[in-house]
Amino acid sequence: MIPNLIGITLLTFILFHVMVKDPATRFAGKYATAERVETIRAELGLDRPLHEQYLFFLKQIVTLDFGRSWATKQKITTMIDDGFSATLSLTIPPFIASIIFSVGLAMFAAYHRGGFVDKAVVVTCLAMMSISSLVYILFLQNVLAFQWGLFPVSGWDPSWTGRWEYLLLPWIILFVLLLGSDILVYRSVILDEAYQDYVRTARAKGLSNRAVYTKHILKNAMIPVITMIVIGMPFLITGSFLIESFFGIPGLGGMMLKALNESDFPVIKAMTVIISIAYMFFNLLADIVYSLVDPRIRLR
Amino acid sequence: METHAQPNAQPNSSELSAPQSTNRRNSLWWDAYRRLKRDKVAVISFWIIVAYVIMAILAKTGLLFPDVNASVGDQYMPFSLEHPFGTDIQGRDILARAVHGSATALSVGFIASGIALIIGIALGALAGYYGGKIDALIVWLYTTVDSIPYILLIPSLTFVLGRGLVNVYIAVGVTSWVTLCRLVRGEFMKHKSRDYVLAAEALGASHARKIFRHILPNVAHIGFVQFGLGFVSAIKFEVILSYLGVGVDPTTPSWGIMLDDAKLELSRPFWGNLLAATLFMFFLVLAFNLFNDALRESLDPKLKNK
Predict the structure, then answer these.
(1) What is the Cα–Cα distance from A81 to A216, expressed in whole angstroms?
(2) Taking the model in full, what pTM does it have?
(3) A131 CA to chain B: closest CA distance, Å?
């Protein structure tokens, strides 16, 4: 965990301080005068030696003070704070909805495995996964919001009561985006259970297919299902990157992509580190939940 | 224990006396090939991929739609026999751009996934075989790369490197080797103490010989499967990067650029770019997904009896 944190800061630093030739020029734009570039460079401390810049960057992370955005002059810490709330309120509902729907359908498909229903489910899922996520967003936003006017095209209300109106369509799109891969994953996880020895025993003692599935497989499959849910949890941070920029939602992803467009280096750096730490935190949480759910893991 | 090594790697196997050809026909690869040939979906998918490759080569050699950047008529012409998807804002034939876009996509899939394959196998083999400090360093490297979400890392990397097709290859390639590296490392750790490797060592095989001649052939199937999966995700990333404006140059025909154009055209409404890019990408990615599934099943010994 700690070595990885250091690794992330090193990687970020190398990317944005060593590999980018001249951030000040890039931010100032092509037509800036030489003096203006010099002023920016001095203001940002880009004229100091690299190791000093790295130590300063580490200090920023430890004190959680990343300074201000070059583009909007806002405090970056405040931006990130708001970003988390926007991103999580966007990703959590579709994440849960998709799990419930997918596990149900996967169970149904696994019950009919090899049959027509199962094949139809698998082919539909694969087809859904073969369309770029950009297409879903472009198409649904255009048809449902722009042409039919069922939802606002884009926008955001930072208050908790006002934001739902803007979240509805992004929720639907995220849900659709999740379905294909979720159903396939849960189906294969449930099918793995269907080949275990205890299933053979249950069949040998004469239980019906229905009883084998509801009484035996469903209960045992819950462990791998929960594992898969937990493994998918980093999605809560990264799942909505594209959607946010389409719908003008000021979440982590929308902010990041905006900063990339504006060459807003302090924001990009801060976001890379903070999002990676959050991502690591969710992965750690995944490991903990995993060992709580399945006692066998702890024994190993 | 199932090993599919060369006959000289198996010390006391009865196969030593068996003729060479029988042994080859019983190998994992022959078995997988037979399974794939029986699988109709896999065969069809394979030929779809081949068709795309031929189309891309024809486009690149100038035999198919040589004047892809030339204006052929008015802007936003409706669908017609001559221009099945109409023309775009500069009056260029959209079908031609989609065909050339598949060349871009395939090249990104092949090269980026190839870079990831080389890095993943090299680092995974080193870590798993030598263990110790080398292992610790490589594990640190890939857990670090893995803790930065791809959707964040890849756009940042292309942003730093600048726009362009070559930079897309590099950015996607140097970031997508983690899963393969982890799997190869695990396999090498498992295989390095197996009897056939110990036997090779007893016969005086060098480290390099053990890695390349003995262990690698037994691990290569993982590389195949991961290469296929990497291919698909590289294609998807190229589209997203180009859409975001940190991918290929705007003059390079790309499905991502077409979707970017489509964003402004949908309100007209003009569907040509969206439809063409979606359909072309759909069949390629679907064929790859189906083929990958079949390939993984045919190469996975555990699934064989199901």
Answers:
(1) 45
(2) 0.85
(3) 5
Nearest by CB to A280, which of B147, B155, B160? B147
DSSP reduced 3-state for B6: coil
Whether B270 and B78 have beta carbons less than 8 Å apart is answered as no
Beta strands in B51-173 (DSSP E): none
Residue B88 · residue B75 · CB < 8 Å: yes
In angstroms, the CA B282 to CA A114 distance is 25
Per-residue pLDDT tens digits for A40-56: 777 777 777 888 888 88
CA-CA distance, B74 to B222, in Å (whole number)? 50
Single out the residue of B236, B26, B34 nearest to residue B151, CA to CA. B236
Q: How far apart are CA A64 and CA B305, in angstroms?
A: 55
Give the DSSP letter string of A106-127. Answer: HHHHHHTTTSHHHHHHHHHHHH
Cβ contacts of A135 on chain B, cutoff 8 Å: 259, 274, 277-278
**Taking the CB of residue A50, how many other CB atoms lie within 10 A of it?**
11
3-class SS shares of chain B: helix, strand, coil, % to 5: 70, 0, 25
A268 touches chain B (CB under 8 A): yes
Which of the four pLDDT bands, split at 50, 70 and 90, describes residue B302? low
Encoding tokens for residue A252? 């982590």
Q: Is A132 on the interface with B (CB under 8 A)?
A: yes
Q: Does the CB of A121 have a partner CB in chain B at under 8 Å? A: no
Residues 130-169 on B with a CB inside 8 Å of A are 140-141, 143-145, 147-149, 151-153, 155-157, 159-161
Distance from CA of B284 to the nearest CA of A (A): 8
Beta-carbon contacts of residue B285 (< 8 Å; ≥ 6 apart): A129, A130, A131, B232, B235, B236
Q: What share of chain A is helix, strand, coil (3-state, %, to 5)?
A: 75, 0, 25
For B140, the closest of A3, A238, A271 (CB atoms) is A3
Question: Which of B201, B190, B172, B188 is closest to B121 using CA atoms?
Answer: B188
| Tens of pLDDT, residues B195-212 | 999 999 999 889 999 998
Contacts of A147 in chain B (CB under 8 A): 269
Residue A43 has a CB neighbour count (10 Å cut-off) of 11
Instruction: Identify whether the C-beta of residue B76 lies closer than 8 Å to the C-beta of residue B84.
Output: no
Burial-class residue A296 by CB neighbours within 10 Å (0-12, 13-18, 19+): exposed
Is residue A251 within 8 A of residue A244, CB to CB? The reply is yes
Q: Do A147 and B269 touch (CB under 8 A)?
A: yes
Question: Smallest Cα–Cα separation from A244: which of A234, A256, A233, A259?
Answer: A256
A146 to chain B: closest CA residue: B267
Interface confidence (ipTM) of the complex: 0.84
Q: Token pair of A146, please?
A: 């722009």
